[in-house]
Structure formats: structure tokens, C-alpha cells
Amino acid sequence: MRRFAVFVASLMLLPHAIAADDIDSLIQQAESGNADAQFRLVKPYGQGIGVRKDPNKAKYWFSKAAESGHAEAQYWTGYNYFYGQGGERNLNKALQWYERSASQGYGPAQFMAGYVHQMGHLLGDNIRPDLAKAVHWYQLAAAKDEIGAQFHLGCFKYFGIGVAKNVVEADALILKAANKGQRGAQQFMQSKWKVNEKNLQKICDKHMNQCKK
To answer: CA angle, 3 as apex, 71 and 33 as ends, to 5°?
Structure first.
């Protein structure tokens, strides 16, 4: 429960603030099956905003929102399984939830779905690498300006990993990510004219492994 409380606290950074007098209406909508209302109740119950603080109800509405098809709740469910927040770490379940969210067009979930397909075999739980699926999700996430996806896909294209080698497209993707602060992309661009291709590959490998737990 402590880990879930930490997760709920992180929702304070998300734009779901509501006035206390809106809680009753929100509860009615949530009980009627409205996924957005269900997700928006997580923060009030988790933080005690307009209602008595109740982590169990926060967790309940969070789960209901994910099951009801709320893309962001599904992403965070995948996140919890990926990192073991709340107790159980399960990469297969993480991937299922990431892909449910990704299928609705949620960029962060598209990136993580690609990441698990690319790197899951190094993380455990008998996840088989599937570069075709990794490329698929990275392409969609990169189009939404997910900088991690831009960097990973750029590395793929630069070295011909799972896709045809295309240095021009790779440079464009990695430069976009670098300009938005992606550290691996920044190191790659800074090193491009100073080191050989083998060392550039090491930069990609190092930074693509950073989600590894």
C-alpha cells in the first residue's frame, strides 16, 4: 500500500484537479461507468481532496478506470507491473496493459510497448524479443514526439536494426530527440564526428538499456 500511495502522490503532477463541490457529481459519473470520472477520483481519494482520504478507494477507482478503457490509467497499470509498484512485478502483464493503452494512441504507452518488445528478454519473465513490434510501436510513438521512441528508432535506422538502414532518417530522429533533451540522443550527436561507428553503437546500447531493472 505504501508504494501505491507513492504512485498516487505522483498524480499530483497531472492536470486532474477538481473542486471539492464537484466530487459528488464525479462519483455519480464514475459509478455509472465513466472511465474519465473513475480516473479523476484517484487523486481526491489518494490525497483527501474533497473527501476523506482513502487509499483503498483510490486504488479501486484506478483499477476500474483501467478496466473501463481509460488509456492513461492503462498506461499506469502497465507501469506498476513493469516496476513492481504495489508489490507484483510482471512484464507480461505490463506489456498487456501497455499495448491496451498504446492501441488507443497513448504515446508513452506506445514507447513502453516498443521497449518491452525490444528489451524484455533481458528483463526476465520469458519475454521474447520482437523487433518488428518494437519498430511498429516506436514509429507511432515517435510521430507523437515521444523522445525515447525517436532515439530508439533513430538508432535502429542508423544501424539497420529491425529496419532498413537509413542514416538520413536516423539523424533526423536522433536530432529531434537531442533538441528536446534526450540524453542518449545528445551524446550520440555530440560524439558522431568524434568516434567510430562501433562506439556510436555502444552509446545507443547504453542508453537503450537504461529502463532495465
So the answer is: 35
In the chain, what's the furthest Cα-to-Cα distance? 62
pTM of the model: 0.87
Altogether, the residues listed in the chain come to a count of: 213
CA dist., res. 140 & res. 5, Å (int): 32
- CA torsion 147-148-150-152 (nearest 10°) is 160
Sign of the alpha-carbon torsion through 184, 189, 194, 196: positive
Three-state secondary-structure class, residue 100: helix
The secondary structure of 110-166 as a DSSP string is: HHHHHHHHHHHHHHSTTPPP-HHHHHHHHHHHHHTT-HHHHHHHHHHHHHTSSS---
Which residue matches cell numbers 550527436?
189
- In 3D space, the residue among 14, 74, 78, 10 whose CA is nearest the CA of residue 40 turns out to be 14
Q: Is 49 helix (H, G, I), strand (E, B) or coil?
A: coil
Residue 105 three-state SS:
coil
Give the sign of the dihedral formed by CA 25, CA 26, CA 27, CA 29.
Answer: positive
Specify the residue for cell string 507491473.
Answer: 81
List of residues 6+ apart from 135 with CB closer than 8 A: 114, 153, 156, 162, 163
The rounded average pLDDT for each run of 10 residues, N- to C-terminus, in the chain (213 residues) is 46 51 87 96 90 93 97 96 86 96 98 95 83 97 97 98 96 98 96 94 92 51
